[in-house]
Write a structure and sequence with these properties.
Layout lengths: L1 H15 L9 H22 L3 H24 L5 H26 L6 H23 L8 E3 L3 H17 L8 H15 L4 E3 L12 H16 L1 H25 L21
Antiparallel strand pairs: 1-2
């Protein structure tokens, strides 16, 4: 009888013990949600004809997107949920938003060609993000495989911001926008290497002249932000092809995929 009571008590204690509920880290996901709001805000502003505000919404989303991963690593709050959330947020802010903004601003007047360019960009952004997720474990960390989606979005948003600041109507540059949107979209899905800046050490010292150049760069951006920011992303948007050509001419390996035979890590990291 005593054994039965002990067994019942043990069963009762086992039943009472509950596994702790799995929660969601607030801080990094707060930055991700803010970046998502930036993309949503950009779409709404484009629908209302405020294309300068729409472009700024994309740039705000870029800044916030660059912070959520760093905050998660600094606070040791990485999670699979956050990784997937970040990838979905990027699709809205850097895939759908630039495609819709460019269509509303300039591509609508091109009819089916406008639809074509906007859809190709949106589809390439989705393909680029999916490829990034599954190739994380086999790509050289120093480079991106194809143009990163935030840089592609900045290329389009920067052009629209510069044009609207100069009072240039979208209809007058519709074919230029068409070419730029296709270039940004297709470059995202190429195998051209773009420098990632991930190997830059924050603790490493630099020569004094580097600080002077940084100060000059900040001053130039302050003088005329639309042109300066657009110029920076134009240079970066072509840098991958220049790097590819130089490595090809020197007979160096041009692919950023490592020679490892291990299966790629399929956890979404972007």
């Amino acid at each position: 009888m005593q054994d039965e009571n002990d067994s019942a008590a043990t069963d009762h204690e086992t039943a009472v013990v509950r596994k702790p509920r799995k929660g969601i880290y607030v801080l990094p996901n707060l930055f991700t949600l803010a970046a998502l709001f930036g993309g949503f805000y950009a779409i709404v502003m484009a629908m209302n004809g405020r294309f300068d505000q729409a472009a700024m919404g994309v740039f705000c989303a870029m800044v916030l997107d660059s912070l959520d991963g760093r905050v998660a690593r600094m606070t040791n709050t990485q999670s699979a949920f956050g990784e997937q959330m970040d990838s979905l947020s990027d699709m809205v802010s850097f895939g759908a938003a630039p495609a819709l903004i460019s269509y509303e601003w300039a591509l609508r007047g091109l009819g089916r060609w406008g639809w074509f360019a906007a859809f190709v960009y949106c589809a390439c952004a989705a393909l680029r993000l999916a490829r990034f997720n599954v190739n994380t474990g086999v790509v050289d960390k120093r480079f991106f495989q194809g143009l990163p989606s935030p840089a592609a979005a900045a290329l389009i948003a920067g052009f629209i911001w510069l044009a609207t600041d100069r009072d240039i109507a979208g209809g007058s540059v519709s074919w230029y926008t068409f070419a730029l949107v296709l270039y940004a979209g297709l470059t995202m899905v190429t195998n051209v290497p773009f420098y990632s800046f991930k190997d830059v050490s924050r603790k490493r010292t630099v020569p004094f002249v580097v600080i002077v150049l940084l100060a000059l760069g900040i001053g130039v951006i302050y003088i005329y932000p639309p042109a300066a920011i657009f110029g920076v992303f134009v240079v970066y948007g072509f840098s991958g092809y220049v790097m590819y050509g130089i490595r090809k001419a020197r007979g160096l390996h041009t692919s950023v995929i490592s020679t490892s035979t291990d299966e790629p890590d399929e956890r979404g990291l972007h």
